[in-house]
Amino acid sequence: MMVLVMGVSGSGKSSVGLALAKRQGAPFLESDSLHPTTNVAKMAAGVPLDDDDRAPWLDAIATWMAARPHGVVACSALKRAYRDRLRAAAPALRIVALLPPERVLAERLGQRRGHFMPGSLLASQLATLEVLGIDERALVLSGDKPVAATIAIVAQWLTLDPRHDAHNLSA
Ligand SMILES: Nc1ncnc2c1ncn2[C@@H]1O[C@H](COP(=O)(O)OP(=O)(O)OP(=O)(O)O)[C@@H](O)[C@H]1O
Ligand SMILES: O=C(O)[C@H](O)[C@@H](O)[C@H](O)[C@H](O)CO
User: Fold this and answer.
1) How many domains does the chain have?
2) CA nearest 26: which of 73, 86, 70, 89?
3) Residue 104: nearest ligand to its CA?
4) Is residue 19, in this structure, part of any structural domain at all?
5) Spatial separation of the C-alpha atoms in residues 62 and 124, rounded to whole Å
6) What is the pLDDT of residues 127-154, one digit of tens each?
7) Could you state one GO biological process linked to this protein (predicted)?
């Protein structure tokens, strides 16, 4: 089973994705490690990435997904087209979207040290994020609970038949 944990910078996708991968005994991909150095330099300079910047990065993530049956990937996947690109590589992809309120995101990014992504990019991240379509059958979580609580919900959801997936904003 391939799982995408997505959201804007600070949503907790890396923390939740890594903890989920450990719990599931699945390989974990921190997709930031596949950004070309030019992308990292751009973000570090406070300039948002565009579609052209993200295309080779999404291709590399898609290659990682296509190469294995199981895995957990932390990736922003902000636009529907990006998620479509990843689904083309992993048709049964299950998506967990973390959508903490902006106040929580800003607080987390303000406290974080030693990361290339500046908090000043939060506004563009939120403006770029495209709402999950019902047909994407994602689990949509507020992501402002402790990581252990979030992954317990996700692990339970993953045991359910994906045909029953629906939006769920309750947790
Ligand atoms: N559930 C949580 N509760 C409190 N703090 C959290 C939670 N999840 C993540 N954090 C903290 O918020 C910050 C951002 O988390 P994380 O790096 O996992 O997010 P991200 O979406 O991967 O961000 P980025 O894409 O910018 O790397 C980190 O300092 C992390 O420790
Ligand atoms: O699509 C994007 O704009 C990027 O993937 C960003 O989301 C960052 O890489 C990430 O948030 C920082 O870790």
Assistant:
1) 1
2) 70
3) 1
4) yes
5) 24
6) 999 999 999 989 999 999 999 999 999 9
7) carbohydrate metabolic process
Contact 88, 133 (CB under 8 A): no
Residues listed for the chain: 171
ipTM: 0.96
Please work out whether the CB of residue 24 comes within 6 Å of at least one atom of ligand 1.
no
Within-domain flag for 35: yes
* DSSP string of 130-142, one letter each residue: PPPPGGG--EEE-
pLDDT digits (tens, 9 = 90+) for 109-132: 999 888 888 889 999 999 999 999
Q: What span, in angstroms and rounded, lies between the C-alpha atoms of 98 and 19?
A: 14
Q: Is the CB of 10 under 6 A from ligand 1?
A: yes
Residue whose CA lies nearest to ligand 2 atom number 9: 32
Instruction: Give the strands of the sheet with 139-141, arranged side by side.
Output: 28-30, 71-74, 2-6, 94-98, 139-141
In a domain, 171, yes or no: no
Q: Rounded to whole angstroms, how far apart are CA atoms 64 and 77? A: 15
Domain with 32, as residue range(s), is: 2-164
Specify if 53 maps to a domain. yes
pLDDT at 73 over 90: yes
Q: What angle do CA 41, 47, 139 make, to 5 degrees?
A: 95
pLDDT in the model for residue 170: 47
